[in-house]
Amino acid sequence: MKRLVASLAIILCLGALWGCSSTNVKHLIRQPWTLDNDQTLTMKFWRFDYRIAPTSDQFCVRGTAFPLSDTIPAWANKVADIWFAAYLSDASGKVIAQDLRVFEPGPLDQPSGIGFEFRLKPQDLPTKSDLFITFGYRMKLSGDTDKGEVFFASEGAMTRF
Questions:
Q1: Residue 81's closest CA among 101, 99, 105?
Q2: Which of 76, 80, 89, 91 lies in disulfide reach of 140, CB 3.0 to 4.6 Å?
């Protein structure tokens, strides 16, 4: 019986901690949330050219991500695994809405980039707070050589308790 009570107490504590957690992007480069303007956000390994447009009950973030040739090795020209995310946050970095897209493996066309479209649907928008946008990514790139080289990079939101 004591084990059962201890197990239930642990489960309740973990549930309470999870309920108090939040996703945060304060550590990432962010830009002010601006509607209907062409914008660019440059991160460590990608440049995101995008535009935010409101729809009836959400926001559409559409654009193209370009790999930065000065930070990604020239031999890394094949996508093995990649995802992009868009995050809408308040001034403290707390994520209000997010969306994620996973892309198919294939060649990495640096001049053309990778097109994306995100749908952000915040439940509530703070009325007295500035809003910001940022992006996240996780990528694993390989090359044409038989060396088995892999280039990995990731920037994304963090969950805080």
A1: 105
A2: 80
Contact 158, 118 (CB under 8 A): no
- The type of residue at 88 is L
Amino acid letter, 11: I
Task: Work out the number of other CB atoms within 10 angstroms of the CB of residue 22.
Answer: 13
> What does the pLDDT look like over 37-53, one tens digit per residue?
999 999 999 999 999 99
Contact assessment for residue 39 and residue 148, using Cβ atoms and an 8 Å cutoff? no
Looking at the DSSP bridge assignments, the partners of residue 42 are 47
Q: Tell me: the pLDDT tens digits for 67-92?
A: 998 999 989 999 999 999 999 999 99
- 50, 63 contact by CB (below 8 A): yes
Q: Which phi and psi (to 5°) does residue 144 adopt?
A: -85, -10
Please list the alpha-helical segments (H only) found in the chain. Answer: 2-19
d(CA 75, CA 73): 5
Residues written for the chain = 161
pLDDT tens digits for 100-148?
999 999 999 889 999 999 999 988 776 667 899 999 999 999 998 778 8
pTM summary value: 0.82
